[in-house]
Design goal:
Layout: E1 2-9, E2 13-19, E3 25-32, H1 35-54, E4 69-74, H2 80-87, E5 91-94, H3 97-107, H4 115-129, E6 134-135, H5 141-174, H6 176-181, H7 188-196, H8 200-204, H9 208-217, H10 223-234, H11 243-279, H12 284-288, H13 295-305, H14 315-322, E7 327-331, E8 334-338, H15 345-361, H16 363-374, H17 379-400, H18 406-409, H19 411-417
Parallel strand pairs: 1-4, 4-5
Antiparallel strand pairs: 1-2, 2-3, 5-6, 7-8
InterPro entries: Transp_IS110-like_N, Transpos_IS110, Transposase_20
GO molecular function: DNA binding; transposase activity
Pfam families: DEDD_Tnp_IS110, Transposase_20
Length: about 425
């Protein structure tokens, strides 16, 4: 016997609908988030199973000892609620919000929408199209921990880029000489000097000793030459702004410099946490043996792929999830092969970074990339082709439990370049 549940979740509650195999609605409820809501969900499901077992409505009923499978459709694949559903033995299907939206349009042309209606859509969707949906595979606690710190680390890197862009825009508006003097606005020495002298007049008065000291603390090379170049750039005549306006900009720049300093410190701290957690995972050695993957990138790849056994039956399944494999659109005489636009941003970012690093780490990867370029494929497309190949190699190594081997991975390319 199978029982289908649609779970439309919000921050503080869940709208749930239970449905049998014929599509008949058995129960509806709004449940609170947390242990109370989960207990009420178990009770609701238990009541329906008991009712069917007792054959209260004269139907065929449930045979004694017959197994019951509860299939739950929900628009997320993570969080304590989903983990509790899996721990209870339910089959949890992660439904992409785009999929449920298209399914809703199929049922209702009026485009009416409510939480209870969305729960009905999810229940009916898992009843009719469960074979088309991806079950949520439970990763190990260690993989979950790696995902938490790896995502937080990458998120801070993205935040640093955003704050650096804001800093650059502010400097361009009132202090363009700073953009000439400093090439990396996130560097510790640059942030120190901007915090000490955010106004053009104050920056022009910075001594060689002050500049050199900041460069030394940041462990820069050629301190003398760099300090001279910075001082000359800061003292270059430029178009100015009114004093009160410059002071206002200086306050914002000092604030951005302080934020970036803290973000840099936290990125370093989280990088240590990423390496610590990832280094204890059984698959860490295999992943780090891949060309272009170190501790940080390797942790990101593991975090986004997960480590649940059997999640990816084939290398093609893993490449499809990674969105490195192309899709084909064919209709009549028209046939177009294109990249996948719907993808996991964090995973595709890590895989492209791996592909770029592999160009110097692996002769076979370089030859594969060069062959793609020879077919008049652009740089980014060639990197995507290489990333697709590297994902297949990673899948084979993880499946067999073996480390990466250059000759085995690229037999044809190594033979050609020998």
């Amino acid at each position: 016997m199978r029982l289908f549940a649609g779970d439309d979740w919000a921050e503080d509650h869940h709208d749930v609908e239970l449905m049998d195999e014929s599509g008949r609605v058995l129960a509806r409820a709004r449940l609170p988030e947390g242990m109370e809501g989960m207990a009420r969900l178990h009770a609701l499901i238990g009541e329906q199973i008991s009712g069917r077992a007792g054959d209260q409505d004269g139907g065929p009923g449930q045979e004694a000892g017959e197994a019951v499978e509860v299939v739950v459709g929900i628009e997320t694949d993570r969080g304590p609620w989903v983990e509790a559903l899996i721990a209870a033995g339910y089959t949890v299907l992660a439904v992409n919000p785009l999929q449920s939206a298209r399914y809703r349009d199929r049922l209702r042309v009026s485009r009416a929408k409510s939480d209870a209606a969305d729960a009905h859509v999810l229940a009916d969707m898992v009843r009719t199209d469960a074979h088309q949906l991806r079950p949520v595979a439970a990763d190990s606690p260690r993989a979950e921990a790696i995902k938490v710190v790896a995502r937080a680390h990458k998120r801070l890197i993205w935040e640093r880029t955003r704050h650096a862009q804001r800093l650059r825009h502010a400097l361009r508006d009132y202090f363009p000489a700073a953009l000439v003097a400093f090439d990396d606005l996130t560097a510790p020495d640059v942030l120190e000097l901007l915090a000490a002298a955010p106004e053009p007049d104050a920056a022009a008065k910075l001594t060689m000793g002050r500049i050199s000291a900041a460069l030394k603390r940041a462990r820069r090379r050629n301190v003398g030459a760099k300090a001279t170049a910075i001082q000359q750039a800061l003292r270059t005549p430029q178009l100015g702004r009114p004093t009160v306006v410059s002071a206002a900009y200086a306050a914002t720049v000092a604030s951005q410099a302080a934020i970036l300093t803290v973000v840099n410190e936290q990125i370093t701290m989280l990088a240590e946490q990423v390496e610590q957690h990832f280094g204890q995972h059984p698959a860490a050695k295999i992943i780090c043996s891949q060309p272009g993957l170190g501790m940080i990138l390797g942790a990101r790849v593991l975090a986004e792929f997960g480590d649940a056994q059997g999640r990816y039956a084939t290398a093609k399944a893993r490449r499809n999830y990674a969105a490195t494999s192309p899709i084909t659109r064919a209709s009549g005489k028209k046939r177009v092969v294109m990249a996948r636009h719907v993808h996991n941003d964090r995973l595709i970012d890590a895989l492209h970074a791996q592909a770029f690093a592999a160009l110097t780490a692996s002769p076979g990867a370089r030859a594969y990339y060069d062959q793609a370029k020879a077919r008049d494929i652009g740089h980014h497309a060639a990197l995507r082709h290489l990333a697709n190949k590297l994902v297949a190699i990673l899948h084979g190594c993880l499946k067999t439990g073996t480390l990466y081997n250059e000759k085995t991975a690229w037999p044809h390319h190594n033979h050609a370049t020998a």
